[in-house]
């Protein structure tokens, strides 16, 4: 049955993308459309004393100048995304979380909480006029002390970020697995480390954007947004504006990258919907890059204080971690990243004891939300760095310590003794981690590199190799839907609830459905990113679409195929079991001349006197399925980085990079390879370049790409990929998620490779990014230590 | 942000001191100064139009001169804001006599916010020093022309 699945079809969507005929939010044009601009806070924390908008309102072609006070009682407050924040009861019993309700108005009222927060919205004939008007608005602020450092924020008496809370600790939990004291008592050594993954942004090539229009006759709102979650936007716009959900249509057209921060509700989506209705004209807002740097949400920002108990042969007995996540001015996603950090800490390692405490601190910074990896790269960096440190303390090769602690293949399925955040027991369903590691060793020519390193060093070349592994829970629920139908033309039409930001939905889900109906890819049209197509949808995030939407597409197609065979049996007067279908024709296996085409069948199934649908079935050729996964599937990968460090400049060059990954059954190998490579590119940014920096007053200092460094194609080599295909046991396709895989281990592998390259200097990297000045400082420190205390 | 610099003048300390306290001269010397209105002893309301790197805009604010030691040492306190952001600066100015006239040594501690910080931060130091240079040159020119 699988003719399409497993093949590297070229992406159907690429023709329009490469010919400039895609349609992004900014391409949407409507008659009479006005444009909005925002005035954003220039203070991290300040009271708004007054806003004088008279000069702006006096300007010609300015239609509205709106402040937060104008919206009180009319537009609700934004707060936690409920569907992402609920925890099952048994997890609450285990981790005893504190999670405090926190809010943000769509335009600041009373005080501003971070630089970049929306304060005033101006709607005018066009953006030029709106920006001119913005310059005429006078806002009088009274600066308040800003809390910028998360540890300072957690201290008693620190200025409050959210005035309604007692302190800045927005959330807390403690997860005990086994007894840490017992692990320590059995251990020969306990090592400590403190690992920092700084704040970064996701920087999609398309910034955010919203167009909203209101139809008076039908009392209907149309919203186009470059979002990852059209259904959630519809829900929250309805909720905050007091509207009927089905009177709102949210479309995510072509979207140029999301990576997490485009998931979730933004003030602009709510406000433009409100204004389109108030002003009775379409309103458009396209985020500019400067707004994006401070107004679009950031991510990571975790500091882990780690202790690891181990024996003298390198066996790890237990891990204790006390970590702080700096969530910025509001936490929209509760424990999503923090609990992900907990669930992915031990990854492919067999570590029986695990004791983790998490505190989430509110600070006067842009809100922190999930970004590709969502809590995983931070802990994989901490864990694989400390494993590397243990090896070097013991005088062993890091590879030896990693392999000693990796979960043996024969112990699969393996339980980590805790729950995943969806409530399922954290049991790895399938995979072979030692095999992946061996593949990575082989591919990277590890032995050859080890044999030559000393000689290269004598030639002045500092070349190192570093490894990192990860196991990733992918395909998280709660559900995803698919509706499949046969068009009168015979075309298979598939609607999926998860929308695309570049993930190839139109191709990949076409392959899934095409196989069920026995048709080629061009006979399946996949539609997504539109709330009118299906009753419910979740979205594309958390490496979940292939698993959830893929399984839903498959199961809806199977349902429809059965119905089609039943209808065809009725028409042809043959038992459905004797029929099959191929290339748009249903025929009897034993008498191929007895046949009916898809268009003929569609006509036969249409409602009416001549409807040939068997008794008890509804007319029409259409089926819907909502797939609810039992729990997540576990993808895994092993990364190997080979780097050369210039000890004069501190510059790190990636010479070669290898990724062995298991994403279960592969629907389209080219797409999977592209996902891994893309994740790797963003991992390089985290590893070597990116850091959002605020000064002590909470002012953003990295507001342009001159100061916030992103890797370009020049800095991103092609990662050589190796593939394992251990089918998941938790969905009918056997697939696992792959979207985040490439980003998770890259920082750890590169940091370990840099440490390895600089082995003679005994440097310890505990902070990202591994920038040239940081490497240079480490070398300076190492050399001065050498003088005082030669090793 | 900490900045410092000095300016050399071919005039006497008293000459320069007076010029630096004369609203008319200040108005002509402050870069981009549109308005400078005396509101009290040594206190002015100021409107400036400035372009800092990519950030252009109109700033309104207050300037206050506090004499520490008449004729030799004063503090300039400035506060302003506009659509691109805000600045709050405290500038310590000392006038020292020299063979050829006098030298003004200044130390400035500035807090900046908004786009000026996020976009202009990296180049701001250079621009501020450049503007200080312009300011003192303009003072000197006006003094030479008999403005004070």
Structure description:
Chain A is of the alpha+beta class and about 800 residues long. Chain A contains 23 helices and 29 strands. The mean pLDDT of chain A is about 95. Chain B has about 150 residues and is an alpha+beta fold. Chain B contains four helices and seven strands, in the order E-H-H-E-E-E-E-E-E-H-H. Chain B has helices at about 15-20, 25-30, 115-120, 120-145, and strands at about 1-10, 35-40, 45-50, 55-70, 75-80, 85-95, 100-115. The mean pLDDT of chain B is about 85. At the A-B interface, helix 11 of A face strand 4, strand 7 and helix 3 of B.
Looking at this protein, list some descriptive labels.
heterodimer, A: 791 residues, alpha+beta, Aldehyde Oxidoreductase, domain 3, Aldehyde Oxidoreductase, domain 4, 3 domains, seven-stranded mixed beta sheet, six-stranded mixed beta sheet, 23 helices, 29 strands, 30% helix, globular, B: 148 residues, Alpha-D-Glucose-1,6-Bisphosphate, Chain A, domain 4, seven-stranded antiparallel beta sheet, 52% strand
Number of strands of chain A: 29
Overall average pLDDT of chain A: 96
Distance from first to last alpha carbon of chain A? 64 Å
Q: Which class of secondary structure composition applies to the elements of chain B?
A: alpha+beta
The CATH architecture of the largest domain in chain A would be 2-Layer Sandwich
- What gross morphology of chain B would you assign? globular
- The total of helices of chain B stands at 4
Cofactor (chain A): Mo-molybdopterin cytosine dinucleotide
GO molecular function, one term (chain A): iron ion binding
InterPro entries (chain A): Ald_Oxase/Xan_DH_a/b, Ald_Oxase/Xan_DH_a/b_sf, Ald_Oxase/xanthine_DH-like, AldOxase/xan_DH_MoCoBD1, AldOxase/xan_DH_MoCoBD2, AldOxase/xan_DH_Mopterin-bd_sf
Keywords (chain A): Molybdenum, Oxidoreductase
List the helices and strands and how they pair.
The complex is a heterodimer of chains A (791) and B (148).
Chain A lengths: L13 H5 L15 E7 L5 E7 L1 H5 L3 E6 H4 L10 H4 L3 H7 L2 E2 L11 E2 L5 E7 L2 H10 L1 E6 L6 H4 L15 E9 L2 H7 L2 E12 L8 E7 L4 E6 L4 H12 L6 E4 L15 H13 L3 E4 L2 H7 L3 E12 L5 E13 L7 H9 L8 E10 L13 H19 L3 H8 L8 E6 L5 E4 L4 H11 L2 H13 L3 E13 L5 E7 L5 E5 L8 H13 L6 E4 L17 H28 L6 E4 L2 E4 L6 E3 H8 L16 E6 L5 E13 L6 E11 L6 H21 L30 E5 L16 H4 L1 H12 L14 H17 L3
Parallel strand pairs in A: 1-13, 11-12, 15-16, 21-22, 28-29
Antiparallel strand pairs in A: 1-6, 2-5, 2-7, 3-6, 4-8, 8-16, 9-14, 10-11, 10-13, 14-15, 17-18, 19-27, 20-21, 20-26, 23-24, 24-25, 27-28
Chain B lengths: L1 E8 L3 H8 L2 H7 L3 E8 L2 E10 L2 E15 L3 E10 L2 E13 L4 E13 H4 L2 H24 L4
Antiparallel strand pairs in B: 1-7, 2-3, 3-4, 4-5, 5-6, 6-7
Helix pairs in contact in B: 1-4, 2-4
Protein name (chain A): Xanthine dehydrogenase family protein molybdopterin-binding subunit
Cofactor (chain A): Mo-molybdopterin cytosine dinucleotide
Keywords (chain A): Molybdenum, Oxidoreductase
């Amino acid at each position: 049955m699988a003719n399409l699945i497993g093949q590297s079809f070229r992406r159907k969507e690429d023709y329009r993308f490469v010919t400039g005929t895609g349609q992004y939010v900014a391409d949407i044009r409507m008659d009479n459309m006005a444009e909005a601009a925002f005035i954003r806070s220039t203070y991290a924390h300040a009271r708004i004393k007054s806003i004088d908008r008279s000069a702006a309102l006096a300007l010609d072609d300015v239609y509205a100048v709106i402040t937060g006070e104008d919206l009180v009682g009319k537009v609700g407050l934004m707060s936690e995304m409920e569907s992402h924040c609920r925890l099952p009861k048994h997890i609450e019993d285990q981790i005893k979380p504190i999670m405090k309700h926190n809010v943000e108005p769509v335009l600041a009222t009373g005080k501003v909480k971070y630089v970049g927060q929306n304060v005033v919205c101006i709607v005018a004939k066009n953006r030029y006029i709106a920006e001119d008007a913005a310059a005429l608005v006078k806002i009088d602020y009274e600066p308040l002390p800003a809390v910028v450092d998360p540890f300072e924020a957690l201290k008693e008496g620190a200025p409050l970020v959210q005035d309604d809370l007692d302190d800045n600790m927005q959330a807390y939990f403690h997860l005990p697995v086994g007894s840490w004291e017992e692990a320590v008592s059995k251990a020969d050594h306990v090592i400590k480390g403190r690992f920092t993954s700084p704040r970064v942004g996701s920087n999609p090539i398309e910034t955010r954007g919203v167009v909203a229009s209101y139809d008076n006759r039908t009392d209907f709102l149309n919203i186009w947004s470059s979002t990852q979650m059209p259904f959630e936007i519809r829900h929250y716009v309805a909720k905050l504006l007091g509207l009927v959900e089905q009177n709102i249509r949210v479309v995510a057209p072509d979207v140029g990258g999301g990576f997490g921060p485009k998931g979730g509700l933004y003030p602009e989506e709510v406000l433009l919907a409100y204004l389109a209705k108030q002003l009775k004209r379409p309103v458009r807002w396209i985020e500019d890059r400067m707004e994006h740097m401070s107004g679009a949400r950031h991510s990571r920002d975790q500091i882990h204080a780690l202790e690891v108990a181990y024996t003298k042969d390198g066996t790890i007995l237990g891990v204790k971690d006390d970590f702080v996540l700096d969530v910025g001015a509001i936490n929209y996603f509760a424990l999503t990243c923090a609990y992900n950090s907990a669930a992915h800490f031990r990854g492919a390692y067999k570590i029986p004891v695990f004791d983790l405490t998490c505190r989430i601190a509110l600070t006067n910074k842009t809100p922190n939300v999930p970004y590709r990896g969502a809590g995983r790269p931070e802990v994989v960096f901490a864990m694989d760095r400390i494993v590397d440190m243990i090896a070097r303390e013991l005088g062993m090769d890091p590879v030896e310590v990693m392999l000693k602690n990796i979960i043996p293949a024969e112990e699969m399925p393996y339980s980590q003794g805790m729950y995943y955040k969806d409530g399922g027991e954290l049991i790895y369903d399938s995979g072979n981690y030692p095999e992946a590691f061996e593949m990575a060793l082989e591919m990277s020519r590890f032995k050859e590199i080890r044999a030559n390193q000393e000689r290269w060093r004598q030639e002045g070349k500092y070349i190192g190799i570093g490894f990192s592994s990860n196991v990733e829970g992918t395909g998280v629920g709660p559900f995803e839907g698919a509706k499949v139908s046969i068009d009168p033309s015979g075309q298979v039409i598939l609607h999926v609830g998860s929308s695309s930001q570049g993930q190839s939905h139109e191709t990949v889900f076409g392959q899934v459905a095409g196989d069920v109906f026995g048709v080629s890819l061009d006979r399946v049209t996949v539609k997504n990113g539109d709330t009118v197509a299906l009753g419910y949808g979740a979205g594309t995030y958390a490496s979940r679409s292939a698993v959830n939407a893929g399984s839903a597409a498959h199961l809806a197609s199977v349902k429809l195929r059965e119905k089609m065979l039943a209808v065809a049996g009725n028409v042809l007067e043959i038992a459905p079991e004797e029929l099959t279908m191929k290339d748009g024709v249903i025929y009897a296996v034993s008498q191929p001349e007895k046949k009916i085409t898809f268009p003929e069948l569609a006509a036969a199934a249409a409602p009416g006197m001549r409807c040939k649908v068997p008794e008890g079935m509804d007319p029409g050729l259409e089926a819907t399925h909502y797939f609810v996964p039992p729990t997540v599937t576990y993808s895994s990968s092993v990364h190997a980085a080979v780097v050369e460090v210039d000890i004069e400049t501190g510059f790190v060059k990636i010479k070669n990079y290898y990724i062995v990954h298991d994403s279960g059954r592969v629907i389209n190998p080219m797409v999977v390879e592209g996902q891994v490579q893309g994740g790797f590119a963003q991992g390089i940014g985290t590893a070597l370049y990116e850091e959002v920096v605020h000064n002590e007053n909470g002012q953003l200092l990295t507001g342009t790409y001159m100061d916030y460094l992103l890797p370009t194609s020049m800095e991103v080599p092609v990662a050589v990929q190796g593939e394992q295909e251990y089918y998941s046991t938790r969905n009918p396709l056997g697939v696992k998620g792959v979207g985040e895989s490439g980003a998770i281990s890259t920082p750890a592998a590169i940091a370990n490779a840099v440490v390895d390259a600089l082995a003679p200097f005994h440097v310890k990297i505990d902070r990202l990014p591994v920038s040239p000045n940081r490497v240079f400082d480490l070398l300076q420190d190492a050399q001065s230590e050498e003088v005082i205390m030669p090793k | 942000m900490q900045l410092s610099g000095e300016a050399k003048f071919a005039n006497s300390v008293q000459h320069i001191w007076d010029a630096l306290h004369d609203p008319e001269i200040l108005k002509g010397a402050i870069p981009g100064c549109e308005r400078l209105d005396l509101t009290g002893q040594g206190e002015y309301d100021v409107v400036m139009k400035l372009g800092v790197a990519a950030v252009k805009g109109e700033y309104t604010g207050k300037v206050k001169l506090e004499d520490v030691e008449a004729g030799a040492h004063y503090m300039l306190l400035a506060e302003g804001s506009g659509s691109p952001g805000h600045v709050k600066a405290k500038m310590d100015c000392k006038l020292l006599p020299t063979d050829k006239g006098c030298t003004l040594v200044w130390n400035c501690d500035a807090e900046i916010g908004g786009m000026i910080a996020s976009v202009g931060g990296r180049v701001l130091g250079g621009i501020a020093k450049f503007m200080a240079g312009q300011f003192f040159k303009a003072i000197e020119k006006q003094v030479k022309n008999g403005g004070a």
